[in-house]
Predict the structure.
Amino acid sequence: MHVVLIPGFWLDASSWDPVLPALREAGHTVHPVTLPGMESRDADRSGIGLRDHVNAVVRLVDELAAGHEPIALVGHSGGGAVAHAVVDARPDRVARVVYVDSGPLGDGACINDGFPAQSGEIPLPAWDVFEKEELVDLDDEARAAFRRRAIPMPARVATDRQVLSDERRYAVPVTIITSTFPEAAMRELMAQDHPHLRELAKIEDFEIVELPTGHWPQLTRPAELVEALVTALRPR
C-alpha cells in the first residue's frame, strides 16, 4: 500500500523518520510529505493557504493512483484537516485515513485561529500555550530538539476555512489514534453532537485507538505509534 504521511504544524517530512523503517518492513511504500512553504525556515510562505497544502497532496495521490495500488493517508494534528480535504477531493482513490491525535475537519471550520501570527506566519509558540495533556512525555531534551527543527507555519493554513463538497468522503474507513483524549470521552461528546466531533460522527466506518502520550507521538512514542499504524493499515 502507498502510505502518504502528512505532518502537523511546524514539521516537515523528516518528522516521520522514526516510523518509516517499520512501515517499510510491513510492506508499505511510504511517502512522507513536506507541505508548501515548509521546505525551510527561509521559504516564501506569504501567499500559502490551506488549499495549497490540500492541492499538493491531491497531486501526489493522483500520481500514485496511476499504479493501481491502494493509497492510505496518515495525517498528524493539523495535517488531519489536509487529509480529510484530500479524501473529499478523491474519495475513490483513498482506501483508508489514519488521524494521529487529530480528526476530520468539517466544512467551514478552521484548524486553529488562536495561534499568534507574525508577518503572515506562525512560529512555534512558547510551551505554555499548549495544554498540559499535549506535552506529556515531551521532556526538556525533546522540546529543545523540536524547537530546533520547527519551521514557521503559513498563517492562512491555520485560519482558512475548510471547503468540502463530496459526501462520498464519509464512506472511506477511518482510524483515529488518540493520544491526548480518551476514547470514552470522545464518544460521549459525539453522542452530544459536539461540533468538533460532528464530522467524525458521520464517518460510516471508524475506529478509535488509544495511544496515551502527548500530542506528538512520533517524537515521544514512535515504537507504539508505528505499531498502531501498521495495525490500522492491515487489510480488512
About this structure: The CA atoms of residues 214 and 229 lie 17 Å apart. DSSP finds nine helices and eight strands in the chain. The domain at 2-232 is CATH 3.40.50.1820 (Rossmann fold).
